[in-house]
Structures are given as C-alpha cells and as structure tokens.
Specification:
Layout: H1 6-14, E1 17-18, E2 23-28, E3 33-37, E4 42-45, E5 59-66, E6 69-77, H2 79-90, E7 94-99, E8 141-144, H3 145-159, H4 163-169, E9 183-190, E10 195-199, H5 207-220, E11 227-229, E12 239-241, E13 247-249, H6 250-260, H7 274-285, E14 291-299, E15 307-308, E16 314-316, H8 326-335
Parallel strand pairs: 10-11
Antiparallel strand pairs: 1-4, 2-3, 4-5, 5-6, 7-8, 9-10, 9-14, 12-13, 15-16
C-alpha cells in the first residue's frame, strides 16, 4: 500500500475543485441556515482549516466561488472532496467525478428531498444503501480520463458536423425537449471494453445523426464495432439487472422513493436521464459483467455561460459534467449495488 505524507494529503484536499453536482453548504448549524452550491461552483478549503482533513469530523469549512465571484464560506461534508483528493494523490486515471455513490437525505418533513449531499439539519445523511446495506462509496462508478477524453471528442465532432451530415439529417441533431436545444449526453465503458452512448429525453428526432457521429468517433479512435447507442428503456419494463447480477424491481425502487418523497414510477421507461439508460443497456442488453467508467455531460452549444434559474442560481452550462435528476440518480445508485 502506498503511504503519503501529511503534507501530500493536506495539499490534495487544499486544491480548488469544481463541483460536478449540487451540494448543501451549512452557514450556521445552530440557526439551521444553509445554501445550495450548484454544479460548476469552485470550492476550496479555508486555509486555516486544512488540518481538519486528518480529524474524525464529517464537515470541513470551505470558500465557494461562482464565475470567480465569492459565494461566501460555510461547511460541506468532507466526503465531497474525497474523490478529488484520491485522484490527486494516487495520480490514477480517474478524474475525481463519480456516479452512483450519492448520499440520500431521508427527511420526511417539509424539506423532504433526495439531496446529493444533505445538511444534517434537514435529515440524516445515510452512509449506507437502504436497499443492500453496503456503503454508498462501494456503489460508485468513476469517470476516468479515457471516457472523459472520448466524451470531449464526441462533443467536438458534434459541434463541427460536416455539411453532408447536416444535409442528410437536418440542421440540428439535438432532440427537441420542451422546445429547447439542451440535452444530457452519457457515455460508459464496460469491463470488456465496449462503449455505450446515451442521451436524455424521449425524443428520437436526432438519433440517426448521433449514431452516425458515434460511428465516426469509433473509427477515429480505432474502436469500430465496439460502440453502441442505447435505446430508451422499453415501455412496461418493471425490473432491471443490477451490477451485482440480481434484479431490481419497480416495488424496490418505489419503496426507496417513498422514503425520499420522490414521485413513484410505473415503468423503468419513465426514467429520462442518460445514466439509467447506460446501465440498463450494459447489463440487460449487452449482458456486461461490469462497468469500468461512466460520465454524463450537458450539451447546449448556445449556452457557454452557466444557466441560471429564476432565482439566479447557477445550474449547468455546455460541456459541464452533470448528475442525473433526483429520481434517476436514486435509481442509478440502486442499479449499482455491489
């Protein structure tokens, strides 16, 4: 086992990192005050707090920034930084972004939600899966440099689509969801080296063009025949194969949804994000024995700045790594039970 010095560990946790998902930052524990930090926010441990990485405490004080503007200081779970610090320390191929290990807030009160990382004032942060009992960390699938670079290449190719493809498939490949041109792209790699691409939503308007570009990417990286584009999960599907080989049924999902106040579903086809489609395709279509990497990215070429909702909160921007919605993220965790 590799051993690291205290200075190396402290340095790894002290670096600035870009949040890949929403996190609750506590401002004052006693007053029950907190704010939400959104994807693309930069966080860094407050200088005089770095020694707390060695203490058995779950929270650490950080400073948050959005577009280089200070968003104040507060406490976030130290676990938010673990994947980034791990990647920095061991210099592996993982990027520090992971999927499936989200901590769920099982608060049933007025603030009931399935926050990625929850404030203790809003409910108990579960460190273990309520379904299988294993640690949430063991449910993770990491983004690595290979899958990240291939996603970036795919986006670059889509942004520079040749005239012949535009003429063949139309002016834009993006399926139109609610009249906009935004979509979530997902990419995964199985344990035996097969690559899967998926996109969010239920509109197949641009599927043929995306598949064509995917084939061109496969040829470019010398992996022709190893790529497939996931379909929407079939209508009426009531169970799916998990990573551990067991079946996850609708009743199991809705039981957890009931704990988190998430609307229940009648079929897995109701899941619209990219990640559940990737996992379903891997285990129920390709019958893969494992997933070795995964990523989800927001594709919205006209939005180079962070998107903001009506309250001015930054949510997502083109090219940013993003998690699935609350409902799909919960199912992803259940599908990745070890």
């Amino acid at each position: 086992m590799t051993r690291f010095t205290a200075d190396q560990i402290e340095d790894a946790y002290s670096r600035p990192y870009i949040l890949p998902r929403r996190v609750t930052m506590v401002l004052d524990f006693a007053k029950n005050e907190s704010v939400e930090l959104f994807p693309a926010y930069e966080v860094r441990v407050v200088p005089n707090q770095t020694h707390y990485v060695f203490h058995h405490v779950k929270w650490i004080k950080i400073a948050a920034f959005s577009n280089k503007q200070s968003m104040g200081e507060g406490w976030i779970p130290k676990a938010v930084l673990h994947d980034f610090a791990y990647a920095a320390l061991v210099n592996t191929q993982v990027t520090g972004v992971s999927f499936g290990g989200d901590k769920i807030d099982y608060d049933s009160g007025i603030n009931a939600t399935a926050r990625t990382i929850a404030s203790p004032t809003l409910g108990a942060v579960m460190s273990r899966c309520a379904d299988c009992g294993a640690t949430l960390t063991s449910h993770k699938v990491y983004e690595d440099r290979d899958i990240s670079e291939k996603m970036d290449k795919l986006i670059d190719m889509l942004l520079n689509v040749e005239g012949a493809l535009t003429k063949r498939y139309g002016a834009t490949w993006v399926p139109k969801a609610a009249g906009n041109q935004a979509i979530m792209l997902g990419m995964a790699r199985t344990g035996n080296g097969r690559y899967i691409l998926a996109y969010s939503g239920f509109d197949d308007t641009g599927r043929a063009m995306l598949e064509d570009v995917m084939d061109r990417l496969a040829k470019k990286v010398n992996q022709k025949g190893k790529w497939s584009l996931a379909n929407r999960i079939p209508q009426g599907t009531v169970q799916a194969t998990r990573r551990n080989g067991t079946q996850l049924g609708i009743n199991d999902i809705n039981t957890v949804f009931g704990l988190t106040a998430v609307p229940q579903i009648t079929s897995l086809s109701d899941l619209m994000c990219a990640a559940p489609k990737l996992i379903y395709h891997a285990f129920d279509v390709l019958h893969a024995d494992s997933l070795s990497a995964m990523t989800e990215t927001w594709y919205e070429p006209g939005n180079q700045k962070s998107f903001q909702n009506s309250t001015g909160r930054t949510l997502r921007r083109h090219g940013q790594r993003v998690p699935s919605c609350t409902r799909c993220s919960t199912v992803v965790r259940l599908l990745l039970c070890p």
